[in-house]
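Narrative summary of target 7.
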Amino acid sequence: MEAGIVGLPNVGKSTLFNALTNAGVLAANYPFATIEPNVGVVPIPDERLQIIQSFIKTQKVIPAALRLVDIAGIVKGASEGEGLGNKFLSHIREVDAILHVVRCFENLPGGEEVTHVDGKIDPIRDIETIETELILADLQTIDSALPKAERAAKSGEKEQVARYSVLKKLAPVLNDGKPARGVIASLADPEELKVVKSLGMLSAKRVLYVANVDEADVHGTGALATLVRQRAEQEGMQVVPVCAKIESELSGLDEAEKKEMLAAYGMHEPALATLARAAYKLLGLQSYYTAGEKEVRAWTVHVGATAPQAAGVIHTDFERGFIRAEVYSVADLQHYKSEKAIKEAGKLRVEGKGYVMHDADVCHFLFNV
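Modeled conformation, tokenized:
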């Protein structure tokens, strides 16, 4: 699962990406500083790992991770080939969710001017520019697919009928300038849901808005960030305010310096920690843990995954030969202080193949192959 960092040129995408991946390279102040999408792996900050290790002493602590793709800036007309156009749109098609970076700062401290591609700072216009390009690209896909789908549906084949039905539902919505996600959320037919996956609609992807704020507005309460927050609420989306410049500086500091700088800005942790967790949730992911003498480790599974599927994340043999899982929660460990005490209290659960994993489960898997 990957999330793509998307936005207009010069909104701070690459600065944000580099801070997230601790690459330490600032973005160039001109459009298309990123020509090919860069891919980074970002650890998910998770205090539960430290809680587990405080009771189960191990050699290593390994967090879950998220794959991020830094996609070069989109400009108005991208769906018709403007800028690097369809190349960028194809990169968005390949990711599972979008982190939409929106510029909510005027200029950098000290008066350094950062040129806006449209000349004026307007976060709502910027959001609509990106969304319009995604909708127009989807509309091109629908318009080219509809005639063929209509002919194929006459065969009466279930899959072809479903395909034509979905395309007919999407066309008027996209023509009205609205994203595909509303239509797709309303679908219930399994055949239609299968079709949706194959279409790869850009405007159907889940979105998290990242308000790139200035140093005076780290909590995103200023006028520009408030506009983004209001827009997100209307759409049922989430906003994470981030000052990419501060985060870039933090990523190069040692822990003592980092704490001092965070305190100066009234922050208890880097905003990127909040962003990483929000992106993880956006992708429909959750963590479970394994703990032993060698390591405490967070493993990533989809919300709704069963115990055998979770075991398969560690090794395919674990899923294939799954017998049962011994499960307790991080909260149980905090309360009883040890696995032995959890077991003696009757809180160690034995779960079978039908068990649906919960966030913060700690597991031992038994299998036989």
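Confidence is low (pLDDT under 50) at residues 23-35.
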